[in-house]
Write a structure and sequence with these properties.
This protein is α/β, with parallel strands linked by helices. It has a single domain, classed as Alanine racemase (TIM Barrel, Alpha-Beta Barrel). It is built from seven helices and four strands; from the N terminus they run H-H-H-E-H-E-H-E-H-E-H. A four-stranded parallel sheet has the order 1-2-3-4.
Amino acid sequence: MTAADAIGRHVLELETPALVVDLDLLEANIARAAAYAELRGLALWPHLKTHKTVEVAARQRAAGAVGFTVAKSREAELFAAAGFGPLLLHYPAWGEEKWRRLAEVAGQVPLTVALDGLGAAEGLARALRARGTRADVLVELDAGMGRTGVADAHEALALAQAIERIAGGGAAAGGGR
């Protein structure tokens, strides 16, 4: 069965695995998130890790999203290549290859990277300098789940100050690309 043949069929008739989207519910959820943000004066940055599709991101942008949050460097690459930005990489990336790829993304769209350690900040700064690009940095705070982030405000301030020194004029921090 082709994708075109599957449209309109009952879910039990589909070959699995299959992505099934209730478009009415999707549109309602997108509209609800946009209305919530607008009512509260918030900038809407939906997280793309749930749907990972350009088509849904386009609907979110049309509804007022001003930027997009991604979980992985590969997601950042794919969405930047499709013209979606600015992007926030929410989970700290680790490793020379990921930092190099993020530096390339920063040359395509405005990029912000959440960091929770000096090693990642140094690696990203090297890659950005080598590529001649810029990215903003957010210091990630542990919200109590113990997954990522620094422990407290004092540690966050110390990391932010260290990142500012590493940036040496903004290679890994500051506005713009």
